[in-house]
Fold these 4 entries.
Entry 1:
Amino acid sequence: MQSHTFRALSRRLLRLHPADSPPEIRARVVEVLTETPDARTFVLRPNRHWTGHRAGQHTTVEVEIDGVRHRRCYSISSAPSDRHLAITVKRVAGGRVSPWLHAHVRPGHVLRLGPAAGDFGLEPAEVAAPLLLLGGGSGVTPLMSILRDLVDRGAVRDVVFVIHARRRDDVIFGRELEAIAARHAGLRLLVELGDLDEVRLARQVPDFAARTTLLCGPGGMMERVERMWTGAGAAARLRREHFAAPPVPTPAPGAPVAVRLTGAARTVIADGAGTLLEQLERAGERPPSGCRIGICQTCKCRKQSGVVENLRTGAISSDPDEDIQLCISRARSELRLAL
Amino acid sequence: MTPPSRTLTRAEADAFGRELDALRAEVLADLGQRDVDHIRAVIRVAHRAEAAGRLMLHFGLGPVSFVLGSGALGVAKILDNMEIGHNLMHGQYAWTRDPALDASYEWDNACDGGDWRHSHNFEHHTFTNILGKDRDVGYMFLRISPEQRWHPHHLSQPIVAMLLALNFQWGVATHDLRLDELIAGKQTWAQLRERARPFLRKAGWQLLKDYVVFPALAAGNAPRVVAGNLVANLTRNLWTFAVIFCGHFPEGVRLFHRDEVVDESRGQWYLRQLAGSANIEGGPRFHVMTGHLSHQIEHHLFPDLPASRYPEMAPRVREICERYGQRYCTGSFARQFGDVLGKIVRFALPGGPRRAVRPAPRCERVRSGEAPRLAPLGPAASPPAIGACPSASAR
């Protein structure tokens, strides 16, 4: 308590850090492993502010690229008991952060992380149940954390791990999975090249509907699996982790969209024709505002997700957790605002 | 002196505005590492100057370390208030998404950041130089233009201005309290008490920090630390007073009546910002020490762009102004400050060479599609007298 007061006082006296900022989780890169031609694992040693994770969770990585901070979510691929933390990142062609991580991050580099988040994973009671881990592409990363956790706990009893990849070279963790399968009779590993084939899957895993299934992969694959499980009456046994696809802007400005005000827990329908400030005021909200022409920053607020158009610059931006000025922004997709 | 600005039609004003928008977009697209490197370097220098200054005041003996120490602390406060605080609080670095460079920065000044963002970012930058709307025109008690109505109290303004210069941070800190409205009976004591809360909190902390906590930490050297902080605050006060008074009060800067800006377009908003501001010439270090408010014109045209970009934008702005026949008011520090001091003395007396008020650029009420526009100010029946300030919009 005293040291906290002293820190707060010295911070205010010397103004070394922005006031009230939570302690930063930073992690030093210990090792960079090439998993496939376009996937790399970054092995990290976090500072004491990292409070650990549950198998299946993800973390937020924040990097500064050309002066601008960007944040992205990545699944953790290491087990909770591992000495180091690992994230595995697939390079997204045309993306901003993943190609940068691949090109610039080397051992010794320090990354800023967010606390572990997400509720994908196994409940303690499910560990002993027959399991099916179903991953596509980079969707294998959270499943790897879960499998490694089972291995650590000596709980690989009846696990089927199905991986879908485009080519053999694209199978992330392929060699390690084979090694685990060789050591554990309870793990059956199936590597499938190409798209999901429901008939083939039902033939290979005839008892799929009876297994607690953890699914993570591209949107198309997940939809097909969900239909298949629903058809078999097994939807309750299916756990899913969606990698958030970037929100798609509405094709034409003016289409109505829902704006969620997460602080007030209200949802407002914006017709997308005017500025967000006008739309919110028309709906009876009273967000703080000033000049209404984009100069005074009074109406600045945090956009948690969604696409907005800046009416002064015409720029369309879909970055999560970005500050926008309501008076010069127009909704171009569903939005979540911290209001 | 350059000839007065040509009156532009609305179409010309909008073309002028589009050229400035294009320049703004160009710089916006170019923002990057260089800009964060600059502001972080200035923050580093300010921190080191403060640390060096305080160490010399706390542990030094004799006059040399006192002068150096309070000087370094003064420089730290100037950098903190001008290039760092003023510019961060405008949101000039919000695009970096670095919380340390956010507009919520709290500066080493008695003025509360929230009060400042309201009175400066919103009121002053939106209603720049509009009589009765911009409370920065003479700060509601100085007469710096013949268009302001004379009152007998203006006779004392040379002395009042001098006192303001010495205590400038307190002038800034109490600006948003609207004490003039209390005197005019337009604000009750209860309203003032409510309004003064952030000011009291912030000013209390500043006084505690500079005149109690730091002196207490210096134990036996306490009187020296008190004196050093006083000198540093005084240095910063005089410097910021001089720079800021050169921004809008020199010769050639004009005021606007409320009925001139009804339904103002974006281009016309740019024209008003240009006509209402004045630059000071100088070198790169001088510009940093003024927080680049030596480029007041560029700052008023582009208040949300990193100020360190103003010097490179200035020649382009000037060239655009020349093509549109617009006056670009600039001069040496001595000339601009001389103008300001001259005005403070001259307009202490009634009258003055009233400029022919140009016919207001009447604008047809065309709504320009989706472009955001200035909130209509509402037509005024007659030009309002200064000192009788209509209350601004809600916070």
Entry 2:
Amino acid sequence: MTLPGWTKEPLVHFLAAGGLLFALFAWIGEPVDPSGRSITVGKEEQARIALQWELTNGRPPTDAELAAQIDRYVRDEVLYREALRMGLDRDDAVVRQRMASKMDYLAASAAETARPDDSVLQDWLEQHPTRFADDARFGFEQLYFAERGKAGAALAAGGQIKGETISLPAKERDAPRNEVSARFGEDFAAALDQLDPGPNWQGPVQSGFGWHLVRLTEKQTGEVPPLAEVRQQVENDWRSATAEARREEGYHILREAYDVRIEK
Amino acid sequence: MKKILGIGLLVLAVAAGGWWIFLRDNPEGAAAKLAEAEAAVPLTDYPERVYWGDTHLHTSVSFDAYGFGNRLGAEDALRFAMGEEVTSTTGVKAKLARPLDFLVISDHSDGMGALQRLAEAPRLLLRDPAMQKWHDMLNESPQESLKATSEIIAAAAAGTLPDQMLNADDTGPTRDLWTEHLATIDRYDRPGKFTALAGFEYSLLPDGNNLHRVVMFRDGFDRTNRVLPFPGLNTKVEDLWAYMEAYEKSTGGQVLAMPHNSNMSNGLMFETTMSDGSPMTAEYARRRASHEPVVEATQIKGDSETHPFLSPNDEFAGFGKAGWQIGNLDASHPTTDEMQGGNYIREALKRGLSLEQQLGVNPYAFGLIGSTDSHTSLATGDEDKFFGKHTGNEPSAKDRANTPQNLGTRQGRFGWNYLAGGYAAAWARGNTRAEIFDAFKRREVYATTGPRMMVRVFGGFGFTPDMFDGDWVKAGYARGVPMGGNLADEGKAPSFLISALKDPDGAHLDRVQVVKGWVNPDGTTGEKVYDVVWSDMAKRKLAGGKVPSVGDTVDRAKATYTNTIGAPELRTVWTDPDYRAGQSAFYYVRVLEIPTPRWTLFDAVRFGIKLSADALADAVAQERAYTSPIWLGPAKAPKPATQG
């Protein structure tokens, strides 16, 4: 069965869910009247308070500790309701700002978490391939020289070349570029980018340590992996890059219902 | 009409929230997938690579970071550490020149999200006049916000925080923040590529004396979400250990704690007694050692290796002391000489040996790491682009090196006192949560003050220089123990296979030293610093028992240096010339770079600022690395055979 296109619109989901909840609340009635003067701390609420205490402290609260937590809960609830009764939630710039930003957050999350399906992520991957491409990989042998002149002379002399001692690997196989850079320095990795593989010694190539003759045996450019392998990473990137756009989208959905006039 | 719209809006909001929860990825399911990916990472036979990380980073969730103006959360912090570009709170674009391999976001458990809530609370719900005042200040301007935060830290230190702030129904908001945070780091953890570990900072602060610990978990959402971050104020450290024990028992996971800024504990971090002042018991020592295997030795708020008062013969002991040594965290109480012993790591390691002699257990057998303690959500310890301790002194504050930096309210410290911050290096078989955590647990980790020099040390017997001709790393593991290990005394002098490679993108090395500490039969202790290998040894001959200075190439007018002095690698086999049979000792390696400009000098050149005389005198330093020690002691009696 194929559903018509409009059923896939986030706005439709949004309104449908809203309608459902509206019906639900109409059916069960208002849950708590915040302006009422009766507060019931039910067993369930008490269990929640106790559990949170336990999670923090690693043991269940004693009766006295639980009673103190419940008192605190009641105190905050009483003050909160009295504040509402006095209308303190109105004409308070900070409350206004806070509620607006909560709406922003909710709107953004709603839009954001409409789980991106594979085609969205596939598009994202194709639009930004370099962000997800594997590192280039190198195989090479290297000989170290503290001074450039000696490296050059050794290369010119040919024959069996012997380098100077240093605690760097003489041979690397299938090493990702970032590891080569971390070990030999960025200059060295950048130089390998420019070399072609071949059976001969090349160089001298500069590293953070000195100079090297390099025999580049293997060079693989970084491939863009299939979506399945980097799905989470693509999704993270997609989410964070589109969060702001989605917030605006959420705002515009609401904004369209308003008639705004700015008097001159 | 307005009312209907209002109801409509409310319904939409609730619907959106419901939708969000309904559609949200199930983090427990994600945890299972993550475990699978972690299991698929190939591991080497022994640690072949060092991994770089920061275990001490604050985001906007930390009350003080928020107060200082930080508005970047965990996601930005993770993206930055992985090498992506982010925009800092003050609008400066920032990208790490070299990404990190692992990160622990360690927001304060106390008042998690509290300043944000205080700033956003309806004013008239705040019953306490101090809270009303802070509320106003937080909303007024960045300067006032910073001031309010300093006052709150001072109040926390003095124990005068209003009840409402301490006892606000915090668990609800903390639960939400923690759950969301754990789900986020699971999304960013990439086994084999980048490790995001769960953690928080436990900020115990009696009387302003810094007893803070970073708590780090080995596990993912499925376990870590079964607890909440443990608050520090008005607790004892034993309560933290009990929390950790309960976590490990109930979830089967693992957790460890890392003390930091012992330099501002006024002698309390490494006491010879228990926290209540009574004589230390073996049980207390055992708990401390098992829960706190690593200490953060260096970070933005100074260096805690040792102090010139404790190590008068150590000419390099003064690094990172200026400003921090005057008092405790908020400088509410001055630090006196007799407090220094409990403030510094080298002395603590010695005290540990002495206590072990009495109790049979060493409470202070810990490894060393560095970290940043940055409050900007940006984990960077680099000097050339220092990003500041907190958002108020990001590079947009151009004169930050000269200005006083009040953490508390009473006494000034100056911007130039801040270090750029360090990094933690971990020798591990692969880059996963389990491997990185286990490296910390077995102390195969080391500290640097920012540069990424690669340091190896193995302790054993009969090591010879010709081992360097072959695969000496493999031989080191086969015939000895790596940093963090215990070496059983064989009745002859131990030898050490040591190699230090410079930061491939950084400065040359001046020298490598071995720091030895020991305990005498009467319980007194001693220490000695040995220069074991240095650059240009043929020219720099010992004079009066000292190695001559390496020199200084720093151009003060340009903030540059050259690698025309020093060496790219220093390595040697060193045998202890002062070995005494039966004497317990520890040995750790300290590596010094040649002098380079500090962030203050880079700032001065970049922004055209004239540094104060004091700041200029401290504008060049020798960055360094400290390895975890190797301990030499009597062979432990073999474990009694158990039925199996």
Entry 3:
Amino acid sequence: MEMTHNIEDKARELRDRVKPQIEDAKRRLSSLNDSVTGYIKENPGKCVLGAVALGYLIGKIARR
Amino acid sequence: METREQRPPNGPRGNGGAHGLGERLDKASQAAGQTWSRARDTYTDVRAAVDLPGRVDRHPYGTLAAALGIGYVLGGGLFTALTGRIVGLGLRVGLRLAVLPLIKDEISDLAEMLGQGDERAPGEATVTRDDAGERT
């Protein structure tokens, strides 16, 4: 019984310690996603051409 | 001996020649205008059909992935070992994802059956055999 309580306490402690970090990482990822999609939407031609060029290079390298 | 005066270079002489040249220039200009107009219409149609800004607006990552794939194929990467590896990985992951719900159902059915077995009334006899193989 004592051991179960100890494990529960440890788990709760760990959750309390890790939860803010996970929330922070989630917020940062969401912000990054917003900025990336915003940039792509603002410059569609540039991004699509860049992607085609990158794919072309990868294809060339893979062919060797 | 013929001189230049006797044999004119091209076309009829005089006012009629200038008129013909003008007509030809007009026709060429009209044809060029029509071609330009047609090319512009075609460009507008293609642009409307592709609708790049709208497509990027709806699926930004998907459009970029498609562009990357087009570039990869244009670069000659289609029939390479890398493509084989990527396709193999995709198939493996896809198969696992497809099989996972089936396995989940099977496990839940099994758990249900085991649960029903435990809930059986204590007085209910279960047929077992002892070490000598006799029914108890």
Entry 4:
Amino acid sequence: MGAAVARALDYDAELMLRVKEGDGASFGVLLAKHRASVIHFVYRLVQEQAVAEELAQEVFLRVYRSRSSYEPTAKFKTWLFRIASRLALNWLRDEKHERGQERLDDGSPDLPLRQVSDRRPSVEQELVYAVKRREIRRAVAALPEKQRAAVLLHKYEEMPYAQIARVLECSESAVKSLLYRAYETLRARLAYMETT
Amino acid sequence: MNCPIQSRNPERFVAYAAGTLDPETARALERHLAECAACRSIAADQTAVWKALDAWEAPPLSPNFDQRLYRRIDQEVRFSWWDRLARTFRPMPLRQAVPLTASAGLLLVAGLLLQHPGTIAPVAPRGEIVRANQVERTLDDLDLLRLLGTADSTQSVHPDAR
């Protein structure tokens, strides 16, 4: 029955049922498929690379630990991101008082923004990108944690409202409200970028 | 189309910027945007936000991420086995240990008795063996005396009879 439900839900849930039966290779497949998205989601939420990787390790460790009690009641990705969200939001809550705004500037490596053009950017362009990147990170970091998580799941994981609601364990209307307020704030802070 | 602002449907702008509106609704919204400056401004801003977020790349992953994870899983699996084993032999409270040990001892003795009944047959104490031998010897002595007594009486009658 479990396998039939898993098949109906998604292939990942079926893989997880195989992990439950002792198939280590299926865990490897799930890890390879979701590793990057989990780390990136957690990174954008906590904005510290080392912490993001550590939390992502914990996410997959928890997935592995839960293998014997796993039941495919929801999509695997929903379950996976629920674990990731809980861990990251708890970390943010614990760190809230210790975390200074300046760490947002110094806590992670200087990465170039995604380049649209194939040409190598000039020093001037690099500077513009660096300023933009900092502004985006600051704008996202300034959002309340749950709004931030909702935006990241919506924007980067392309999850529909219903799935975000299941990940964040709230109602669909609460998700709509979270996203509305989050995008309103982001529009006020980032909309000028279109013209720069 | 109803004005998304007036109809309190702001997620239309989000879906429009994300490109997830169905083509028909998107066309209707575009027609509305051409007429409504307020909606046009929000839609443009939302599109700008969407593009800005697009440009935010996450850093590359550590090359040894999987290796570290599998090491942790290995440690956990090993630890859980050791823990389970250690839990089996962990000393228990005296109140539980005494009756359990006594029961186990009784069961062991009972098992041995059932398996080898001959080897654990009751052995008479040494004193009783000595006493039994003495009784036997005394009875033998009495029989001998009785025989001797009979012989004497026969011998004494016989000469007189002669």
